[in-house]
User: Fold this.
Amino acid sequence: MSKKKSSSNGIVYSTDPGFHPQPDEPQEAKTIPAALQPLRIRLDAKQRAGKSVTLIEGFAGAENDLEALGKRLKAFCGVGGSVKDRQIIIQGDQRDKVLQWFKKNGYTKARL
Assistant:
């Protein structure tokens, strides 16, 4: 067996004359406008040793835009948190503050 890796991505032969293999790199998702973001805000305490956190879910867009949004929300609320698994996690019950920030910044479809 040859130890060379093939760049054909498992394609051995194609009879289609217009066939071109697709690149392996996933395309970065484009962030939709703030007014169209279907964000959901909820309180969660599961698997957190009884501590409550505010979860923001449903962001449609690039990962770095999600990180930036999480950073702005944490700064506005004055608490810690993180961004994991396409969710923004804010420490404590900050649902009202987060909803207020979303309405002020044009996220009209955000809901509790």
Residues 49 and 92 are 13 Å apart (CA to CA). Residues 34-104 form a domain with the Translation Initiation Factor Eif1 fold (CATH 3.30.780.10). The first strand starts at residue 40 and ends at 44. DSSP finds two helices and four strands in the chain.
